[in-house]
Write a structure and sequence with these properties.
4 strands; globular
Length: 258
């Protein structure tokens, strides 16, 4: 598949590590340093432009969520309505699209919400770290909805760290501490190819987090990847009456070839 590069408006896109020349700084290091696979196509967080795209087999689709999300009061299940009302009043992402779509199957929604709560609300690791991992996973998988919405309880904490999170395998810095950086590295590796969670990285991970925390981190990253796949397939779009004002999110469509 032939790939064309577009100029990033800031010269170096923090999503893909692409320069105006179209060369990837990571590609130049491939092999010699055991670089990770090239990151998937993404959206530049500065201009909102797709900075890497196929010239021949992709097209964009801009439309509302493929299956209309339920809203509070639409379900015959009282617990489902309670969950959706909580989201609509500012809980979780303050947007009911994802949970409202899952709500078409009430038992699925009532099962998945406690799963998110198990690490976001009752986890061993600080919840803002999970939000950084969620955003990193959305970036790698190119999930428009996942990158648009923010978990309300930690969005202020995460806001100043987002640019650093977008970097390829970010290292600890004055913006990200060691636990934040290593958790983001894990999320990136799992989203790109879990086989890149090799022995060397595993030693780094377990040197920063306890065994119980590692299980929770890997579990959470797996759930985020599931959410990305669900939202992309459903072409999830924020509801027009929410704070995001992003109704009409665009998703790439790629032709399946032999």
């Amino acid at each position: 598949m032939r790939v064309s590069f577009q100029k990033c408006p800031i010269g170096h896109c923090p999503v893909l590590g692409l320069h105006r020349t179209g060369a990837s700084k990571h590609a130049r290091k491939a092999g010699a340093e055991g670089a990770l696979p090239r990151q998937s196509k993404g959206i530049c967080p500065v201009e909102g432009e797709q900075v890497l795209r196929s010239a021949s087999s992709e097209r964009s689709n801009n439309m509302s969520t493929r299956i209309k999300p339920l809203r509070a009061g639409d379900s015959s299940d009282a617990r489902v309505n309670e969950i959706l009302a909580g989201v609509e009043s500012g809980g979780w992402w303050a947007d009911p699209a994802m949970f409202g779509t899952i709500a078409h199957r009430p038992e699925a929604l009532k099962t998945i919400v406690p799963v998110f709560e198990s690490f976001f609300a009752n986890g061993l690791v600080a919840p803002h770290i999970y939000e950084l991992m969620r955003l990193k996973t959305g970036q790698i998988n190119d999930c428009a909805y996942c990158m648009a919405v923010r978990t309300q309880g930690v969005k202020d904490t995460v806001q100043t760290k987002e640019h650093a999170m977008l970097e390829h395998q970010p290292e600890p810095s004055d913006v990200l501490d060691e636990r934040e950086a290593v958790a983001i590295q894990l999320a990136e590796r799992m989203a790109l190819d879990p086989h890149t969670v090799d022995t060397r990285f595993w030693a780094k991970l377990t040197g920063v987090f306890t065994s119980d925390e590692v299980v929770e981190l890997v579990f959470a990253a797996s759930i985020f990847n599931w959410g990305n796949k669900f939202n992309i397939t459903m072409q999830m779009d924020a509801e027009p009456d929410t704070e995001y004002l992003t109704a009409g999110l665009t998703y790439r469509e790629v032709e399946l070839t032999k």
